Structures are given as C-alpha cells and as structure tokens.
Amino acid sequence: MRALEVVTMEPEPRIVLHEGEKVHDILHAWGTNGIITRIWLALVRAVEWSQCVVGFDTFGAAFDFSEKIATDPAWDKRLVTVFEWPIPSFFTPILQYAPEGKTLIFFMIASSQLARLEDAAREAGGAITQSGVYPGLNARPLLSDYTWNHTTLWAMRTDEAYTYLQCGFDPDTARDQMRRLRERFGMEILFHMEFMKMGDGRVIPGAIPIVYYTTEERLNDMINFCREIGVFVANPHVNNVEGGGRYRADNVQLLAKQRYDPKGLLNPGKMITFHAEAATGASQK
Fold first, then answer.
1. Has residue 30 got a pLDDT over 80?
2. Alpha carbon of 26 to those of 41, 103, 277, 283: distances in Å?
3. pTM of the predicted model, to two decimals?
4. Does residue 37 lie within any of the structural domains?
5. Residue 256 belongs to what domain range?
6. Domain count of the chain?
C-alpha cells in the first residue's frame, strides 16, 4: 500500500493523507482511529500465471522444496502454500489432486516457468497432481479457494472443533519451532504454511495452522508456547486490537486514535489502551 486517506472523528472532521510508513498509523487498528476513504496501491507488471499442485511423501520434504522456491528471487511466484496431511483431505471438491497421506504444495507460478517448476519438483521427489494455466477466477480448480483462511473454513466443514491461529515462523529456526510444537501438541496443530514477502524484502514462512479446539486454557497454552519459542502469533480469538497481536509497540495506532477520535466514537472498547478522557485532555492543551 502506497498511501491512504482517512477522515477523522474530531469535532471538525479533517481529511488526512498518510503516505509510506505513515500508513501504519492506521492499519490493523480495527477501524478505531479513522475512516479510510481512499487507498493507493502499488502496481506491478502483468504476469500470465499457472497453477500447480505437487505432492510429497513427507511434510519435511515438501517444506524444503517450497522454501527453496519461495526464497529464490529467480522464481516469479504469486502463491506458495504447504498443507500437511490430513488438511488436503478436507478439500472435498478437489480430492482427485490430493493423494492419500501426501503433503501438498499449491503454487501459482509464471506460466513461462511452469515446466521448469514441474521438473524441479520431480527431481526433489514430488509428484505433479494438477497443473495448468490460470485463466482467472473462473479457473477449475481455483487453488486460491483452498489457501489462506479458506483452509480453515474447509477444516471446519469437516469438524466444527477446528479453528486456527495466525503465525509467523522464524526463517532460520522454523523447522525446530515446528518440531517443538509437534512434540508439545501432537496433531492438535496441523501445519498450513503460507510463504510471505515482507516489506523489507525477506520471505518468511507465515502460517495459518489448523488447531483442534478443546478448551480455552489449552488454546492459550498453545499461543503462549508459540510466543515462548519465537513464533509470532496474531490471536484471532480476542476482541481487542492489543490482544490480537497486530498492535505496534511504538503506539502509533494509539497516538492516531488520540488525535483523530478523541471522544472514542469509533469501535468503542476495541482499543483497550485508549482512554477518551486522556485524549480529550491532551487535545485541549
């Protein structure tokens, strides 16, 4: 995102432009600190994409291969997603592409690189179960319908006890982090990895793991253990900005709230560090 325009909730509303790093004053604050009215997005050249599904016998082999493709800038990719078994078994419309017991990787790759990707996957021990040019949102299968948080919805159709977390693993220690989680929680946590390119150019193994819910205590134990071993967690099971894990330690979202919504009219109660009296007093000085 290059910039955004926000309308304030001051006694005399203003329209304020946030550009560059200043967009983070507003983002991920649950609509508590202004009303976004316009957004400027950066564009890149158009690419003809293809989809590819690759199956591996083990999660480790699949993760190694997906990481290799995701972190190599020579590959022009839009999607690199890894699902350990039994997650692929939840995708009932496309089970023909999900061999029993296999970890799957879903790729969206430049069509010009598709054949090379297939060769690389086979060389690494993978099997191509589906491959073809992506014609747009009418594609069948539409692999993006099973990635990111769509994955959670497919899991919940199978068993309503499934839920999820939003995590970020350390690129240098992700394998050890996943090993420790498996040792502690067994198959209560199923690894669903989404490789993400960060603003600084790093590619990290983000994750929306599928979690089998038993008790709130057990879920919080999992969240706390993740953080203890260096796995970032944005907790989707709370109703305040700070607890959700996307709150910035430099307080820029809170400072924007104090400037732009001093009476706390926007989403009241969703930013628990905000106090209308303090903001009003500060604005009068």
1. yes
2. 15, 38, 21, 19
3. 0.91
4. no
5. 3-32+245-284
6. 2
